[in-house]
C-alpha cells in the first residue's frame, strides 16, 4: 500500500490517519498522542542503531501500533548485527517503564501515566509476536536462517506468521475483544503477509544477487553429493546466511567440487535458467 511522504525519511501509512480520526471522534486525543510518542521512540531505537552500524536507511514508516525502519541492508548483515537492530526497538520500552514509574512515585498517580504504562506494555508485547513484519517475526526469520536456507526460512516464517494471526484473531473473536483499531491492524498485517508471500521469489533473487557480490569462502563449508544433472538454480535454493555449500559432482569423469560462489557467478553471468552443475567446470576452463 502507498504511504504519504511527509519528509524524506518519514512516511505515514494511510491507516495511521484512520486511527487518528477515530481518536478525534471518540475524544481520545491524549491517548493517541501518547501512543504515537511511544511508537516513535520505538522506531527511533531501530533507526539510530541501524545508523550506528552504517546501514543505509531509506525511510521510517509509521502505521498502526508500530512502524518499520526500511533499509537496503535487510537480510545482508551479520546475524548479531541484525538482531541488535531489531531488539533496539523493544529495549526502548524498558527505560520508558522506568521513567513512568519515577513520575508516578514523584508526582503521584495520574490517569495519563496509567494509560502510557498500558500502551507501553501493549506495544512491547505486540511487536514481539511472531508475526511478519513485526520485530518478533523478523527475529524468527533471522534465527531460522541460521539453521535453514534463506528460501525455507522465509516460507516457514510466513507460515508461522499466518498461524499466529489466526490464533490471535480466534482469541479476540471468542473473547469478544475486537475493536475498530484491532480490525484495521489485523487487515494491515494480513495484507503485508500476503504481499510478502507473493514477492518471495523477488526477495530470494535479491538476496542471491547480494551473495554473488560478496566473498562467501570464509563461511563454514558444507559438502553435498549431487548429480551432474542438478540445475544451478536448484542448488542455489540451499543458500543460507552462515554456510558455504560445496557441491561434489559424483558422476563427473574427474573429481570436481563446485563452489557456491561459482554457482552464483555463473547463474547471473550466463543468465541461463537451465544451466546445470555439469556445465560449470567447462565455464571455469
TrEMBL record:
Keywords: Hydrolase, Membrane, Metal-binding, Metalloprotease, Protease, Transmembrane, Transmembrane helix, Zinc. It is a multi-pass membrane protein. Its main location: membrane. InterPro entries: Peptidase_M50. The chain crosses the membrane at residues 12-41, 83-106, 112-132, 153-172, 178-195. GO terms for cellular component: membrane. It holds the Pfam family Peptidase_M50. Its cofactor is Zn(2+). GO terms for biological process: proteolysis. It is found in: Membrane. GO terms for molecular function: metal ion binding; metallopeptidase activity. Residues 32-106, 107-149 form the Peptidase M50 domain. Belongs to the peptidase M50B family. This is Stage IV sporulation protein FB. The lineage of its organism: Bacteria, Bacillati, Bacillota, Bacilli, Bacillales.
